Amino acid sequence: MHNIQKIGTYWDHIPSYQDRQSCRSCGGTEFMEHILTICEERPRQIIWQMAREIWPNETYEWPNISLGLILGCGSIMAPRENAHPNEHQREQDRRTHHARGPTHLMQTIITEVAHLIWVLRCKRVIIRGNTL
């Protein structure tokens, strides 16, 4: 992340734009984890809830979303279910084998949701906040 995004204290020393450093919902300083996972803005909550609802929870557990998970979602894997009838072998299989389809679905959902939340945040803060 390396503070490359134009959020939070980036706006602190730019005249007429200091208000962009604070979250409009809670008033705290914006940072990427806040925007993607913590903020109480309704769109963020709805989008993550919809992601959880489309995920096949009966077969695969939805992960706890964090900034680290979002940044590393290209390397997360959904465990393959019911690979072996032997319980011990099944547990070993869960640690070493993964289902490709659910893994790709999980990676796609997480990256698309994070991108959508970021785009909506930018539209709300930067485009609508612009007084030109």
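(the above was protein one; protein two follows)
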Amino acid sequence: MKLLLCSADADKQWVARLVGKPAHDISICVINEAWVVGNTDIGILIDGLGAIKRDFGGTIHCVNMLAQSLDDVIATINKADVIWCFGGSLGWLKTVFDKTGFSKELPKMLEKKVWVGSSAGSMILGQKISDKCDQGVYLTKDPYSASEWLGILDFAIVAHVHEDYARKDALDAVMRESKTKPFPFYALSDTSAVVVDGNKTYLAGKNAQKIENGKITESI
């Protein structure tokens, strides 16, 4: 698998390195299901789509999982080098993936496609943190929930930990939570990412930590 798991924006150089093509040749398929629920201001989404248009020169497609058949969604994704999943409601994103059958198809797609996630689009692939920890990190509550995320990865991504719109003690909440779970946590700022490139997993960018059993084992 080749994954770029961001808290916010993705660096085009990281994307190009994973794809193995110059940015101007990279085609992208956008998944936007998480943003359409509970977000009335689409300015962040517009900025994100604008950055994709600015940074990448290939075709840009967007799928609508609830309007299209799963076969049509897969056909559209197959035209792209990158599946780019925006953030928003993590619970709703999981609900849509399960309802449409995309959850079962995605692991096979990740054998061939690069995944770029932003916030919920990154967290969905990993392990689920508890609702208590979630509330200890974020100042808003997701109106949707699920008992687990996709679990494709054996670690948890926690986005926005170091940002002003998270709680001041957000990192402490993640540290406490990690003592109760058998998997690592990656606490990200909006200028960092977790990169998965085959059998290698590492932090990139600035201000992020890998946390295991209440201890920081890697930091940038």
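Reviewer note on protein two: The chain has one domain: 2-219.
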